[in-house]
Amino acid sequence: MLSKKLEKELNNQMNNEFFAEYEYLSMAAYFHSINLDGIANYFHVQAQEEHFHAMKIFHFILDKGGKVQLQQIAQPDIDFKSPLDVFEKALEHEKKVTKSINKLMDEAIKENDHAVNSFLRWYVDEQVEEEALAGKSLGKMKLINGQGEGLLILDQEFSQRTFTVPKEN
Ligand code: OFO
Q1: Which atom belonging to ligand 1 lies closest to the Cα atom of 93?
Q2: What is the pLDDT of residue 78?
Q3: The ligand 1 atom nearest the CA atom of 126
Q4: How many angstroms separate the most distant Cα atoms in the chain?
Q5: H helices then E strands: how many in the chain?
Q6: Are 8 and 66 in contact (CB under 8 A)?
Q7: Is 19 domain-assigned?
Q8: How many structural domains are present in the chain?
Q9: Residues with C-beta less than 6 Å from any ligand 1 atom
Q10: Which of 82, 77, 89 shows the shortest CA–CA distance to 134?
């Protein structure tokens, strides 16, 4: 059984992941609107990953006999100043998610809930990858100063990204 507190925090984290899906969809829409469909693809894939992260929690709550409580999803950012601005926001976002996963893990440790602890390890590892990817992509964007022909090269590179269902631990 999940404690009421962990059940609530897992539901909140599920909501964070659905919100992340929305954020990345909004970023994808921005890039479509400026004709960089390859970079839009990068964010569509990111949105699909976030959906997967949310659904993994959805099933875990049910497997633990808890109650899935879907909440309202907040409106994501819809105004971006530039391609560079989007990548800066994406990295900031991932850092926030890492904090919320760590907070959730702190609670699982405090409650000595080994199942939740084990489940969350996958997210702890995933966040290392998520931050690394967001940081690398931001680094590339900074190299080209977010503009010019470099953007077209990145558009080409990011058009190749595909969604593969992440490995379960
Ligand atoms: Fe779910 O990892 Fe990004 O937000």
Answers
A1: 4
A2: 97
A3: 2
A4: 55
A5: 5, 0
A6: no
A7: yes
A8: 1
A9: 17, 20, 50, 53, 94, 97, 130
A10: 89
The CA 140 to ligand 1 mean position distance, Å, reads: 20
Structural domain includes residue 169: no
**C-alpha pair distances (Å), 93 with each of 16, 74, 109, 147, 153:** 10, 14, 25, 22, 25
163, part of any domain: no
* Residue among 130, 163, 165 whose CB has most ligand 1 atoms within 8 A, to mutate: 130
Residue nearest to atom 3 of ligand 1 (CA): 94
- Rounded to two decimals, the pTM is 0.95
* Residue 167, in any domain of the structure: no
Q: Which residue segment(s) compose the domain that 130 sits in?
A: 4-70+79-158
Give the pLDDT confidence of 40-73 residue by residue, as tens digits. 999 999 999 999 999 999 999 999 999 999 999 9
In this prediction, the residues of the chain whose per-residue pLDDT falls under 70 are 167-169
Distance 112 CA to ligand 1 centre (A): 25
Tell me, what CATH number does 119's domain have? 1.20.1260.10
How far apart CA 11 and CA 5 sit, in angstroms, is: 10
Residue owning the nearest CA to atom 1 of ligand 1: 50
